[in-house]
Structure formats: structure tokens, C-alpha cells
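Exam review. A common question shows you a sequence with its C-alpha cells and asks you to describe the fold in words. Practice with the pair below. Do the first one on your own.
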Amino acid sequence: MMRFYSVCFAICILSATSAAAAPRIVTLAPHLTEWVYSLEMGDALVGVSAYSDYPDAAKALPQVADYNGVNFRALMALSPDLVLAWEGGNKPQDIARLKQLGFTVFLSSVRTPEDIADELQALGKRIDKSNRAAALASAYREQLASLRAQYHRDEPVPVLYYSWTSPLMTVGQDAWPNRLLTICGARTLFTDAPNDYPQVSVQEVLKRQPAILIAATRASVQQASAFWEPHRNVLQAPLITVDPDITSRFTLRLLPALSTLCHSISAIRDA
């Protein structure tokens, strides 16, 4: 009988230990959702933000945040052990309230492409995935450094990178897309913009004459080119597209897309 209880006790302890090793995680930004899956902790996710659409498994999870902010009632019903938030993307008051309510919050604050590796490792330590995080971060840093070395140019290619045409919105010196362009040996046409995402006129673009047009859109090149057709008599710059769902997210999927972008810019420049 004593042996029976000893075995039962051991099993209970083992079960409790296993449960403790798998925290209930809620993510409040799409890139954080991807990080959890990259670290092979998808089973621990109980809630995500809107637009958490990669991998496909994330689409089935309850959504607890969108552009309006955090749905605190929905989040609290999930009883998460850890909430991953995006400083700069989630509302500061929402992050503050999460902390006031006693939730453990991991904050992401990516500013440069290198930060992705650093923060992924920090998250890996937090959820007991240090070894996998270190391996992913190391491979990411190596590939990123390789791209920088391969495509560095003393004279960066001036490009118009834009996400909208009505109004026409481009990027400034310190905007995330320009940090990516820098890796590819290019730069935004509007380095002198007063903010990161300025609205500009077509006339100003024509005056500055970009070497390349880069549209952040899921539309085809043919569809995106239609906007510029009325001006092709004075603007000969070729157009390429990038998927904003990848280039605007701070995930490991960035590098293949960035490699393609760098190759395209280089091929046009050297043609």
C-alpha cells in the first residue's frame, strides 16, 4: 500500500512539474505570436492579437487585441501566466494596466534588425527555450551580417518606398523600412523628412527622381505600376514589390524576403 501511494505521489509531482514548465501565453502582436511558434511553444499559446495569421495554427486561437487595444475581459478569461506585448505597437495605457492587474509582461521593443535576435533570445530564456533561441539567433545574425557585407554600397541607391498611394506615404531616415533598405545598399528618397512616415506629393517624387520604386503591397507588380503610368514620360524608375506582412514584422521570415529585396535592388542598379 505504501508503495502504491509513493508511486501516485511521484506521478502527481511529475505532472505538476510538467504543467509548470508550460506557461499559458498570450501575445498582443503578430510578430510575438510568430516568435512563440519559432521557439516551438505554440501549444502554450491560449490567445493572440488580430492579424496573427502565421503559422496557420495561430488563426484558430482566440483574439484578445486589435487596433482598438486590448480586450481585457477576453484576456483575463484566459488566465495567462505570461503576456507578450509590443512597446510601440500596443497602447502604453494597456501595458500599464496589465502590469497593474498583476500579469507578468514581456515587452518587445525592436528598433533595428539586430534587435530581433536579441529579443528572441531574451524570450527564450523566459520560457525555458534558451538553447533553441540561441541557435535561431546565431543563424539569424550570421545571415544578416552576410547580407550587409554583400550588398554594402558607398553610394546608396535612392528609392521611393511606399505603402499607400492615396495619400502617397513614404518613409523617412529612421523608419523601419529604411533600416532594411540600408542593408541592401539603398536609402529612402526622403532622408530629410521631418517624421518617419511622411506624406509626399507625386510632383516631389518626380522632381527627386528615384532610381527604384518599391511598393509594400500584396498587389501584383502590374497592379502597382498602374498608379505611375500617367507619369512614365518623366519617371523611368522600375518598380518592385515587397510583402508588407513580412517586411513590417520583426520575425525570422524577414531574412528570406530581405535577401530577395536586396538581390532585386542590386540587379537593377548593376543593369
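Now try the second one, then compare your answer with the model answer below.
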Amino acid sequence: MSDWRTRIPQAAQEFLAGRRLDEIECIIADMAGVARGKAMPAFKFDETSKYYLPTSIFLQTITGGWAEFRDGADLEPDMIMRPDFSTATAAPWTADWTLQIIHDAEDTHGAPIPTAPRNVLKRVLELYRAEGWQPVVAPEMEFFFVARNTDPNMPIIPPIGRTGRPAAARQAYSISAVDEYGKVIDDIYDFAEAMGLEIDGMMQEGGAGQVEINLVHGDALNLADQVFYFKRMIREAALRHDMFATFMAKPIEGEPGSAMHIHHSVLDATTGRNLFSTENGEGTEAFLHFIGGLQRHLPSAVALISPYVNSYRRYVPDFAAPINLEWGYDNRTTGLRVPISSPASRRVENRLAGMDCNPYLGIAASLACGYLGLKEGIGPREECRTNAYVDEDEELPRTLGAALDLFEEATGLHEVLGEEFCKIYAAVKRDEYSEFLQVISPWEREHLLLNV
């Protein structure tokens, strides 16, 4: 019998206490952040030392196709899946006693597979570590509860709440609005407790059925794992109550979009001091350089933080979404906000990322831009002290095609994220964009069929 059960987190051990473990889900995030892998009886997991999956899963598009990318021999080699037992957690929605374990992807020599999104984030964190820096992040997750939608041709609509009425919009921060779907919220809390995931806060957002969950700040890899787990868990909780949970950037016409705001700070790895604050509590050059790196390099990283054609429907005025790269203290109209905090907690909030992004890649991309700012000593523009929505700039790409053009030219970003990953990511997204362009929308049929 393997001793791995003594190495898993306390929450997982408590979940199994006095129970017989039935199944293990060996999972890994693909380019889209979809959980892929193998499920096996627990006794098989005990007996098996290695698990294999083809590296081609990182070439799979969101529609189930395969990107046309060929570099060298036309092969589909396997990768070795290596369990990270620190990620073991319950799958409390299953009918039996099941654990999920996130795995890392390695080649036969033990080297990380460079196209695996979790490895991309690890690569960025290693660059920080080499400088003696320790990034700290805190994601905010926005999503919608919606009525079941089994016909893609039909619009998405809000779910029916406990009052028998559809969830209402324009109810930001309303406790009553959250109570409309209280039973699914209760399941989310219960599942999170069983999984050992800590929710820092939950609130109603501005859209009909839109909720925000805040996570406690911490290690970037651990927080990416948590978002990966949360997205799966929230979907399962919603299905129990005859509704969907969606992390689409803009699922409902006329409603706000869903973001994954990412708060960043950087600590001295030895002393734990926040490098964004001086001893006197003022902002440091490192703080400004991090912001400057975000301003300069984020346009090239938008393809990673807004990965689908639907993502760009968030970037419109008057829908509480960022349409700029301005920065400011406690200014929610800026794409880069510095929240009110103590000097020790000084941080930068990147408000550009959509909730539809792969959490490993979204966090990696944002940290990569800040890293380049720190290394290059990039100064930011002057702080924005007014309404940044007023002056629309053209710094941000407004379509996936334009974002990919910038991404493919970003040599500095490629060096940080890895050349091979960037080539394959671009190939996957080009295929998805090309497939989308072949679809004729209802708007085109309605307005163009007989009028042009």
C-alpha cells in the first residue's frame, strides 16, 4: 500500500476519515482550462506508478478539433502525469468517495512539458524566484447562474429564483438577490469546505444572476489551482439545482461581463517584505515598474487573458469593464487599479482578464508583464485621477484576431512564457478564430439578408 495518503492535505484526509476511497481522478488543465485526464479505482492508483496522456491534448481547440501545428516529426508522443499530492481534494458532488489530484506533465526524462499551462505558470514563478522575489495574488471570480440552455440558437436567460421570478439585474451587492438562489450558494459553501477551499467573500454583481467570489491572497500556483477547482465545483453545484453556472465573458446580451480581476504584490522571498512599499509606507520604484510593465506588455498578452471571440464583448463602455490601461488609486474606471490598503498590503489589481481565461495562463500572463516591467525598469504613465472611461484609447485589441497579431509579435513575452508554448497557443487560437468566422450569426441574417 502506497503512503501517499499521509501526504495529502488535511481537508482531504478528513474527507476520507472512516470511509473507503472509491475512485481517484487524475486531472490536468488543457489550454482552455478544461479538466482532462483519467479516473481509476483507488486500488489501481495505489498499484500504478505512472500515468500517460498524449501531449496532443494541448493542441485541442474549444470545439473539440485539433490545431494544425506541425514541428518536426508527425508524432503524438505520450507525456507522464506526475501527481502533485498537495493538490488532492474531495470531489464531493460524486455519488461515491472520490478524490481529485492535479498532475504535472513531464517527458520521459522528467523535464516539464512546456505546453502544459500549469508548467507555463511554474516557469514564470521560477523567473521571479531567481530574482529573490515571491509573487502574491488574489483572484476575484465573476460568473452567472443561468437557466438551462440546451439549444445554442436560443439566447441565455437568467434562472428562476426562489420567488418564482427570474433573477433581476442592476442589483449589485444586494443580499436579497443572492438569497434568490440560496440553495446553490449553500452547496458551494459546503463543497468548498469539504475541498479545503477558503472563500474570502461572496456578493451579488450587477448582472442578472451574476455572482462574485473572492479568494484569500496567497501563492500564485496554489490560487490558480483553486480557481481551476472552483470553476468545476460551481458548475456541479448549479446542476444540482437545475441551472447552469457559466464563466463565459459575456453570456447575456445587455448585461455586464464576467471578469477575473487579479490582485498582485511581490515580496522579498527572504524577508517577506512587500517590495511595493517603502519603510515609510510610500510606493516604491518596483511598484511603479510593475505597473509600467503591465501598461506596456498587456496589449500583447490580451490573447491569453481574453482567449475567445466572446471575450471582447466585455470591452465596451458603460458596462463596468476596463477599456483602458490607465492606473490609479481606488479608481474603478482604470484597467489597473490600486485598492485602498495598508502599506504592507499594497497591490495592483489587473481588471482586464476575463473569467473565461485559463487561470494558469491568465495569472502567468499578468505576472509575466509585471516581471518584464521590473526587469526593464519601465515607468508608468502619470496616474489617472479622473474618469478613465471618458477617453477611449486604442491600446487594447478589440478582436481575437488583432490580439493574436500582437501576441505573435511579442518576443519579450515569448521568452518569459516559453517559445514552444506561445507557438502552439497561437495555433490553437487561430484555428478557433477561423472556425468562428465561418459561422453566420442571426444578426447578419436579420439585417443583411434582404437589405444589402
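Model answer, second protein: The chain has a mean pLDDT of 92. The longest strand covers residues 133-147. Full marks require stating both points clearly.
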